Amino acid sequence: MVIASAPGKVILFGEHAVVYGKPAIAAAITKRIYVKSRRIDSGIQIFSEDKTESSIEYVKHAIELVIGTKRMKKQGIDVTIDSELPVGGGLGSSAALSVATIKSVSTLLGVDLGKEEIARLGREVESKVQGASSGIDPFVSTYGGAIYYRDGRFDRQQINPLSIVIGYTGSPSSTKNMISNVSHLREKYPKIIDHIFDVIGDISERAKIILDASNRRFETRKSKICDESGDLNENELGDLMNLNNGLLEALGVSSFSLSNLVNASLLAGALGAKITGAGGGGCIFALSSGREKEVSTAIKMAGGVPIPVEISFDGVRLEPNSRKNII
Ligand code: PMV
Question: What is the whole-number distance in angstroms between the Cα of residue 176 and the centre of ligand 1?
């Protein structure tokens, strides 16, 4: 038996535009999916509390790809999924599931995969199930921390702790459908939608400058982009989140509940709030900057579920003792 786990994520800036080659920034969070795999005589068995069709698809494709890397014959494998992430919540549950399955099953079968390969296979699983994937989710879930991502290439983004509260609407959404809706809108209004993607890309670039400056400040305390106290310029980061959210609204990926949670968070004093992930349902996150309690209460009052998280610097990993327990 081998247990592996991988973190979910928030896309801080740039979802949807990243599918069209624009930059985006994402960070892994301290909520994970655990995948336990063990050998059985034949076939593939999958146990998951949520029992959604799509979870099963991600696991099946992940197993097939791992087996395919060594051209092995079919293997009997039993997989059990244990998740701290809401399914279809925009928190990268499908990528975390794919990446944790790849790590768990490859270890079980003695296939040695590096992180780069795990992330690339994770992207392939997403593309097969969703029809399109920028790859940002599997990459951040594999490596942990924060990444600046563009066109299959990524840089580790140094990031200091941010106080983030996630607001879950309670209704799942389909990443595949949301990507397809945006694609139809782009077919109808190519010039306008490409402009929106360009501006979202500019927002991600500007956010990168602020995050980089705050890190330099951590070391030198001399950055000009930081505010007077020398802290991370959270006000500007909040502005950029609000601008990004307006553009996601324009792309049609918001919903009544998502807008409600964004507005409630801002009224409670969050510096910025935006949809995270594909939208349509799922989650928002708020930059709460010392007002976590007020923002969490506001999210609850607006009908959402507040999920306080921190950035996770751990990516995909084997859980203790799982190597010893390979049978
Ligand atoms: O909803 P999630 O966590 O699957 O995020 C999807 C992010 C998109 O930009 C909409 C798609 C992608 O592959 O980048």
Answer: 9
